[in-house]
Amino acid sequence: MDLKVEPMDIDYDQPPPLQVFAHTSTLHGISHIFSYEKITAKCCLWVVFFLSSLTFLMYVCVDRIQFYLEYPHVTKLDEITTPVMVFPAVTICNLNSIRFSKITRNDLYHAG
What we know:
The longest helix is centred in the middle third of the chain and has 29 residues, at 41-69. The chain has helices at residues 17-24, 30-33, 41-69, 105-111. With 112 residues, the chain is mainly α. The protein is elongated. The chain has a domain at 17-69. The mean pLDDT is 82. It is built from four helices and no strands.
């Protein structure tokens, strides 16, 4: 019985999954942060700008949520006093095509 164990072929040149994700992601700037090159000043600037943008986004979101939860409202009221007020004319028009006089007792039963 021959139990030879062959070493696994590990590809050390393959980038880590995080770098692969960063380069295939459409999230702006993340591919510049996780570059295949060594860490440079450009990479550090991208990290600073990305984190500051993320921080500003969170600040604005929290501010808007707090504003929404305060339930602010504005009421504007203009009052004008007049000695004589003319009541507007009111016309009631029956546009109902079904006449109550033509409805039978059976129709009323089925209508509810």
